[in-house]
Amino acid sequence: MNLQNPTLLRTANLIDGLWVGADDGATLSVVDPASGERIAEVPCCGAAETQRAIAAADAALPAWRALTARRRGQLLQNWNRLILDNADDLAALITAEGGKPLLEAKGETIYGASFVEWFAEEGKRTYGESIPSPASTTRLLVVKQPIGVCAAITPWNFPLAMITRKVAPALAAGCTVVVKPAEATPLTALALAALAEQAGFPAGVFNVVTGQPAAIGGELCANPTVRKLSFTGSTAVGRLLMAQCAPTVKKLSLELGGNAPFIVFDDADVEAAVEGALAAKYRNTGQTCVCANRFLVQSGIYEAFAARFAERSAQLKVGAGSEAGVAQGPLINAAGLAKVEAHVADAIAKGARVLCGGARHERGGNFFQPTVLADVTPAMRVAREETFGPLAPLFRFDTEAEAVALANDTEFGLAAYFFTRDVGRCWRVGEALEYGMVGVNTGMISNEVAPFGGIKQSGIGREGSKYGIEEYLEVKYLCFDVR
Ligand code: ADP
Question: For ligand 1, what atom is nearest to the CA of residue 183?
Fold first, then answer.
């Protein structure tokens, strides 16, 4: 990995403005998922280091929250500029440790920076309100105040953007933060911390601790100084963290798993639906929580859509993210690969038809072929579980009511997509889908100005948009007696 700015390759943690290792010197290996090679060693910290990071965030809080939103916004703008100026290096780090194609990594960097820019502005608009009083003797006022010390636990599939989407609103609101990045992708997080330091954030405002998930997470949840936890990751870990936060009654934002339906109605434009399907399925090799997991296709268009989608899927170039023209990188690790393989095997055993792919890629390692399966039924594992890989299972349906029922038949409720040219159906189906986000005739929905988040067991709270900063603010009501 050749970085234009080698100082972005950090192998220490940022705690209280100092770059430090684990107390016992222990380290964690960072591995390139495309080659299996070790790229770096980062500190393997636990509860003790986390405690110090929390104490540092707490110590930094009074001065940080006392700054004007404008001043905090200026520092965030500095950070935004530095992220954009170093976008090529950040993309190289993302690809090296996360495996996604370089072009996607660059896209993530720009997307990630957009949250910093957005919240630098939004911090100035955390308006309160005055409420007409029911009594002539009182005046009622509502103000918004930063929650306090916040913790962020982030996943490996967007190692940069999932941090900025949490940290930028927290800092803009006047909170201080301790981040625990995924153990697979700590280098991007540490590079972001280096740029934050350069941007001028005071010591302790933004801390990054890498290492043992359960030990660091346990401390972040149990420590009463932490007032809020924002987590993106699996539903299983989300449930655990929620339980661990119960004793200290922390506020929570959870962005968990999905099982996104992608519905194609008979009246859809096939080419547009296929384009949307490619975008919604194969981003980050199918490893995003909003990736289409179940394709529900109406009988009349089923064969045409299936044939064209499989044809296009088979053309996607598979390879290391750093190679030119690659559209599909490796899965993050052997376990990720094994899950895709198991879902494919289960579906085939129960009668699914392979339209393309269906097996590991000839490159070996963590690579799997883009795979489209037809004649998939609700009895198969892919109907219930998030595959998190380049597998597109096609289910068949006949009526709109059936499609909506199938789409909603899951405990998840993050993203859904549908394609139709009937404007009445757009409204009906858009309203009937039990999801936090719905793409109507599009497979790309995420940006910094829109609220990202799920319902049901896909999570709590929203990120991005004007709603995203509310997650880091408390409402305070002041009642004045004016006599
Ligand atoms: P994935 O299956 O996508 O890796 P996880 O939910 O396991 O999703 O990981 C998301 C984040 O949660 C990562 O930062 C990971 O280290 C962290 N994590 C995993 N287990 C725990 C835990 N017991 N406590 C706190 N954080 C955890």
Answer: 16
Nearest-CA residue for ligand 1 atom 23 is 214
d(CA 44, ligand 1 centre) in Å: 15
**What one-character-per-residue DSSP string does 396-443 give?**
EE-SHHHHHHHHH-SS--SEEEEE-S-HHHHHHHHHHS--SEEEES-S
What pLDDT digit, counting tens, does each position of 21-61 carry?
Answer: 999 999 999 999 999 999 999 999 999 999 999 999 999 99
Other CB atoms within 10 A of residue 208 CB: 30
Contact criterion met (CB below 8 Å) for 396 and 299: yes
Q: What is the pLDDT of residues 55-65, one digit of tens each?
A: 999 999 999 99
The residues that bridge with 31 in the sheet, in sequence order, are 38
Q: Are 430 and 261 in contact (CB under 8 A)?
A: no
**Residue 222 in contact with residue 45, Cβ under 8 Å?**
no
Q: Whose CA is nearest to atom 17 of ligand 1?
A: 213
Cα(216) to centroid(ligand 1), Å: 11
Which ligand 1 atom sits closest to the C-alpha of 182? Answer: 14
- Do the Cβ atoms of 148 and 175 come closer than 8 Å? yes
138 Cα to the center of ligand 1, angstroms = 49
Active site residue 255: yes
Torsional class of 306: left (φ above 0), alpha (ψ -120 to 50), beta (otherwise): alpha
Q: Is 289 part of the annotated catalytic residue set? A: yes
Question: In the predicted model, what is the mean pLDDT of residues 430-445?
Answer: 98
Protein residues whose CB sits closer than 6 Å to any atom of ligand 1: 153-155, 180, 182-183, 213-214, 217, 233-234, 237, 240-241
What strands lie across the sheet with 129-131, from one edge to the other?
A: 129-131, 138-146, 473-481
Q: Could you give the CA distance from residue 412 to residue 474 in angstroms, rounded to a whole number?
A: 28
User: Is residue 385 within 8 Å of 378, Cβ to Cβ?
Assistant: no
- In whole angstroms, give the CA distance from residue 377 to residue 137: 66
| Ligand 1 atom nearest 237 alpha carbon | 6
Q: Which residues contact 27 (CB under 8 A, 6 or more apart)?
A: 21, 41, 42, 43, 44
* Closest C-alpha to ligand 1, atom 22: 214
Q: What is the pLDDT of residue 322?
A: 96
- This complex has an ipTM of 0.98
* Tens digit of each residue's pLDDT (9 = 90 or more) over 336-378: 999 999 999 999 999 999 999 999 999 999 999 999 999 999 9
CA of 356 to the centre of ligand 1 (A): 32
Sign of dihedral through CA atoms 175, 181, 185, 187?
Answer: positive
Q: Give the pLDDT confidence score for residue 205 in this predicted structure.
A: 98
Pocket-testing residue among 30, 45, 153, ligand 1, by greatest number of atoms within 8 A of Cβ: 153
Q: Mean pLDDT over residues 305-326, rounded?
A: 97
Token pair of 432 as six digits: 């009937």
